[in-house]
């Protein structure tokens, strides 16, 4: 079940909403929480019920470790026992984090490790081809954050029900955002969230409609062109290659942006504000700014729990560069167990090092040039992110620099049957390279995408008074998106794969 499916929109979400607030109206607050945890687990098990024990086991183990860490933090102690207690706490934290990472590593990287061992040592160990459980990266990272916060004494004394709700709340369960307990649980404890609030309902439906439109109308349309180019196997000319790379660049943008909007919208129906995870990243003027806008909670996680523990910028300039590079290589590997993701992460690590060196020179680049260079780099790096093999990436890049194909003879298209034929039509068509003719619909869509990303984003549109104009706009986009949704089967959100 995905956010853009009719089962979610017409059945799961309305039933979850009405039963939850009905229970709250009956003053059965605990019953409401039990209901939300139950439907969230149903939402998760809908994909593959065999992995339901995995997430339940992960919740129980991490809750037990977090509770011990939290209680140990509040125990009074002498200096001697304090040092001993601190040592035990640190060992418990390390053990908890290691257990989470080992679980993630087993499911996500076993095949990758065996494949590389076979290649390096010329062995032939069998790969188990383990199916990656849905959302394991996100609920693992969420719980690592909880363990670290418990170690620091920043968590309250939660019972198992509240902790389960924090981990499984379905709007953020599958693909984030990666949340801290302090961002979610105080909201569920507030009396202001127990009953429906019309303002939040209207805002939630509005932003959910925008996200649905982005996904099923824009992202899924670009997906067809991106898949044909990357997976087709045929050589690509100049215009086809650029159409392929830009199609995926916008497919990923509107797919992830659409998911983030729908997650925020669904959560708002329950009066819960999720942290913003996507903030117009293609408006960024440098690569650092891009990572402050793209998958914001993941960027914060990598900074707080990887970059800073590695030393951050505290050990000299050269060590800072090494830490930046290592953080993004590991961030790339987090996205998937292939060398394509490692290369993508390494490219961004190098780009951040170059940006840091550039800022030391104190030169200001023209805004238009800064945006163009940032966007072109991001677009190029997405080729490795999308390509399944190095051959696929090389094939796309080869087409992107195949200027000879761009200068191929112009199209010879008869225009006698066209209503607008004549000298002007003949002249216009004869100026168009033959290799561009088949890609004209794609490039028109790409132009529209550039126009859209230059506008206010959905969060900016959401802020302020919910007036009639916004409601009409939201209802219209929802209606159009629903038509597209029923006309074709919507694909899974791309970040569900990570």
Automatic annotation (TrEMBL):
It is found in: Cell inner membrane. Pfam families: MBOAT. It is a multi-pass membrane protein. It comes from the Bacteria. InterPro entries: Ac/AlaTfrase_AlgI/DltB, AlgI, MB_O-acyltransferase, MBOAT_fam. Keywords: Acyltransferase, Alginate biosynthesis, Cell inner membrane, Cell membrane, Membrane, Transferase, Transmembrane, Transmembrane helix. Its main location: membrane. The keyword Transmembrane applies. Pathway: Glycan biosynthesis; alginate biosynthesis. Its EC number is 2.3.1.-. The chain crosses the membrane at residues 6-23, 53-70, 91-109, 129-148, 160-180, 200-217, 366-385, 431-454, 475-496. It is an enzyme of class 2 (transferase). PANTHER family: ACYLTRANSFERASE (PTHR13285), TEICHOIC ACID D-ALANYLTRANSFERASE (PTHR13285:SF23). Belongs to the membrane-bound acyltransferase family. This is Probable alginate O-acetylase. It comes from Pseudomonas emilianonis.
């Amino acid at each position: 079940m995905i956010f853009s499916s009719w089962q979610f929109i017409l059945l799961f979400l309305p039933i979850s909403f009405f039963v939850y607030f009905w229970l709250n109206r009956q003053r059965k607050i605990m019953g409401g929480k039990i209901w939300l945890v139950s439907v969230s687990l149903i939402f998760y098990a809908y994909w593959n019920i065999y992995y339901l024990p995995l997430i339940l086991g992960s919740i129980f183990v991490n809750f037990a470790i977090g509770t011990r860490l939290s209680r140990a933090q509040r125990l009074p102690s002498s200096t001697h026992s304090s040092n001993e207690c601190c040592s035990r706490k640190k060992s418990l934290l390390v053990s908890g984090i290691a257990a989470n990472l080992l679980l993630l590593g087993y499911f996500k990287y076993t095949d990758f490790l065996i494949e590389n061992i076979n290649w390096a040592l010329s062995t032939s160990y069998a790969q188990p081809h383990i199916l990656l459980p849905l959302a394991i990266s996100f609920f693992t990272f969420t719980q690592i954050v909880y363990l670290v916060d418990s170690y620091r004494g920043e968590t309250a004394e939660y019972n198992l029900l509240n902790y389960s709700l924090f981990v499984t709340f379905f709007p953020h369960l599958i693909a984030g955002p990666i949340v801290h307990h302090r961002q979610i649980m105080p909201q569920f404890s507030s009396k202001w969230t127990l009953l429906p609030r019309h303002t939040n309902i209207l805002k939630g439906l509005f932003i959910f409609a925008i996200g649905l439109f982005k996904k099923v109308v824009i992202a899924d349309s670009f997906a067809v062109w991106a898949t044909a180019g990357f997976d087709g196997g045929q050589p690509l000319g100049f215009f086809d290659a650029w159409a392929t790379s830009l199609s995926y660049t916008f497919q990923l943008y509107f797919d992830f942006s659409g998911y983030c909007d729908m997650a925020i919208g669904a959560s708002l129906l329950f009066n819960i504000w999720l942290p913003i995870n996507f903030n117009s990243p293609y408006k960024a003027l440098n690569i650092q700014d891009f990572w402050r806008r793209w998958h914001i909670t993941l960027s914060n996680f990598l900074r707080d729990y990887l970059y800073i523990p590695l030393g951050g910028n505290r050990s000299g300039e050269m060590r800072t560069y090494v830490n930046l590079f290592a953080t993004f290589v590991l961030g790339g590997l987090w996205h998937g167990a292939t060398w394509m993701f490692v290369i993508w992460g390494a490219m961004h690590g190098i780009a951040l090092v170059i940006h840091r060196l550039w800022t030391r020179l104190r030169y200001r680049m023209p805004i238009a040039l800064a945006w163009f260079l940032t966007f072109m780099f991001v677009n190029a790096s997405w080729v490795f992110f999308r390509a399944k093999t190095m051959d696929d990436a090389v094939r796309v890049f080869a087409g992107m620099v195949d200027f000879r194909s761009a200068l191929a003879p112009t199209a010879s298209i008869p225009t006698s049957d066209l209503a607008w034929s004549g000298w002007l039509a003949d002249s216009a068509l004869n100026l168009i390279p033959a290799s561009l003719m088949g890609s004209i619909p794609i490039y028109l869509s790409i132009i529209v995408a550039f126009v859209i990303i230059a506008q206010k984003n959905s969060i900016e549109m959401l802020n302020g008074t919910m007036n009639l104009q916004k409601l009409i706009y939201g209802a219209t986009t929802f209606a159009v998106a629903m038509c597209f949704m029923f006309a074709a089967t919507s694909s899974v959100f791309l970040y569900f794969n990570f």
